C-alpha cells in the first residue's frame, strides 16, 4: 500500500499550483487565445481528477467521460431553455443526473462483481449510446451542427472588474479545480482513502474486515460522474459552441486517460502535470504547420509507448528522483516501487 | 402493410450486414479467447483492407486480385503488430494484461487513424456491380447474395480448420487450457501469433464485405471496433459459434430496425442490446 505525502505537504503543493495558475494569465496578458488554452488545460485536468478518483482509486475504468460531460453540457443548456431559467440553476441538476448515472453504473457493477474490463466495456457502450443520442436527437441537440453555447452569464462580473469574460471563466474554473482538489485531498486522507486502498489491494480481504465495497465504489462513481457533468458544461461554455463531436470517446476519454497516466495515477498533482504536458504537446503540434496533420498519429504513438513503458507517471518519478537526491524529507512508502504500479491491485 | 417480398429483400440485406458483423465478432473473439487481449484496433484493420483494395483497384487490377492483396497486406500488418506491441503485452499476466491490451490497441487505433487520414481523406467503396436478382417477385441485391455466400464459405473454412486440422486442434487446446497445451508440446505464443494474423485477415474480409455495399472512411474504424465488441459480448466472448449467431441475428435486427424506425434508433438498439446482455450475464465475458 503506497503511503502518500502528508496532507499538509499536499495541501501546500496544491496552494503553490493554485497561485501559479492564478498568476499565469499575467504572462499572456490580454491574449484571449492563450487564456483559452489555459482554461482548456484546467478543464482537462479536472476531468483527469475525476477519472483519478474512480479509476485510480477504485479500479473502475470509466470510459464514458466524454459522454457524461456531454450529458452535463447538453442537459444544462436544454433544461435552461426548456424552463427559461438561468443555466446556473440547471447546472447542478444536470451534474446530479450525471452523478446518478455514475452511481447506478458503479452500484450495478460492484453488486455484480464486474471486473475492470467489464466496466470499461459497459461504460464504452453507454458512451456510444450518448453519442448517438447527441447526434440523432436533432430537434433537441441540433444534431451534428450543434448550437451556440452562451450560458452562464459572466458579463456582470467581467464589467464590474473591467476584464474580459474569458478571464472570468478561467478564474472560475481555477476555483473549481482548487475546490475539487481540496475535496480530493480530504477524501483520500480520510477513512475513504484507506477503504479505497484496501479495496484496490484485495477486495475480498477488504470485505472481510467490514469494508462495504459496494458503498465505497458507488460513492467514488457518484463523485467522479458528478464532477465530470459539472466540468462538461464549462467545457462547452469555454468553446462557446456545443457539438456532439466534442464529447466523443476519441475526443475526450483518450486525452484524459493519457493525461492521467502521464501525470501519475493516484497522485494529487498528477492530473495537472499531465494536463500541462499533454495540452502543451497539443498546442505545439497544432502550432507547427508541418506537424498539424500528424497530431493524432503522434498522440496514438504516445499512448502506446506510455502504457508500455511509463505507467508510473511524471509526478511519482520526479518525487522519487528528488527523494534519491535527498531534496525532500518525506519518503513514499514501499508500495510505489516497480514499473507496474499503474494498474493497481486486483 | 409492407409486402412480403420487400421484407425478404430487407432480410437478405440484413444477412449480408450480419456476415460483416459476424466476421468482425469472430476476429475479436479469436484473439480474446486465446490471449486475453481485446483488440480495439480491429475495426481499423478492416478499414485498412478496404484502403489497400482501393489502391489496387485504382492501379487497374480486378476486384478479386484487390481483395486478395488487401487480405495479405492486413495479415502481414497483423504479424508486425503481434511481434511488436503484443509481445510486450503478453509479458504481463491476468487483469493487467487485459488492461494493457485495451490501452495499447486503443493507442494503435488512434495512431493508425491519424496516419491513414493523411493519405486517405475521403470515403471509399468497392462496388460489386452485379445488379439485382429477382426471386419469386422479390428484388434482392446481388451484392448481398455474394457477400452471404463468401462469408458462409470463409466461416465454414475457419470452423473446418479449427475442428479438423492439427493446428486447429492445438489452437483449441490453448483456448481451453494453456498449461495443458504446453505440456503436450504446443507453443501457445506461436499459436497466438497465428490466430492474431488470422483474426486480422478475417476482420479485413469483414471490411471488404462492408465496402461492397457502402462507403468506408478512416473514421469508421472505431465504429467497426464497437460493432465487433457488441457482437462478441452478445455472443459470449469466448464462443465462435456465439459470435457468428450474434452477428447474423443483430445484422437482421439492425436492418429491420433500420427499415421500420430509421438508422439512428437502429444503432442505439445495437448498443443497448450489448448493455442488456452485459448486465444479464456478465460471466460470459469475464
TrEMBL record, chain A:
Main location: membrane
UniProt keyword terms in alphabetical order: Cell membrane, Membrane, Transmembrane, Transmembrane helix
Membrane topology category: Multi-pass membrane protein
Coiled coil in keyword set: no
InterPro entries attached to this UniProt entry: ABC_transp_permease (IPR001851), LivM-like (IPR043428)
Record carries keyword Glycosyltransferase: no
Domain of life (superkingdom): Archaea
Membrane-spanning intervals of the chain: 12-31, 37-54, 61-80, 86-109, 116-137, 168-187, 218-236, 242-262, 269-288, 294-310
One Pfam family it belongs to: BPD_transp_2
Subcellular compartments: Cell membrane
Protein name: Branched-chain amino acid ABC transporter permease
UniProt source species: Halogeometricum salsisoli
TrEMBL record, chain B:
One family name in Pfam for this protein: BPD_transp_2
Major subcellular site: membrane
Assigned keywords, A-Z: Amino-acid transport, Cell membrane, Membrane, Transmembrane, Transmembrane helix, Transport
Intracellular or extracellular location(s): Cell membrane
Bilayer topology: Multi-pass membrane protein
Transmembrane feature ranges: 6-30, 37-57, 63-86, 98-120, 140-162, 194-218, 224-252, 259-280
Signal peptide: none
Keyword Lipoprotein: no
InterPro entries, A to Z: ABC_transp_permease, BCAA_transport_permease
Family per similarity comment: Belongs to the binding-protein-dependent transport system permease family. LivHM subfamily.
Name the UniProt record assigns to this protein: Branched-chain amino acid ABC transporter permease
Species this protein is from: Halogeometricum salsisoli
Organism classification: Archaea, Methanobacteriati, Methanobacteriota, Stenosarchaea group, Halobacteria
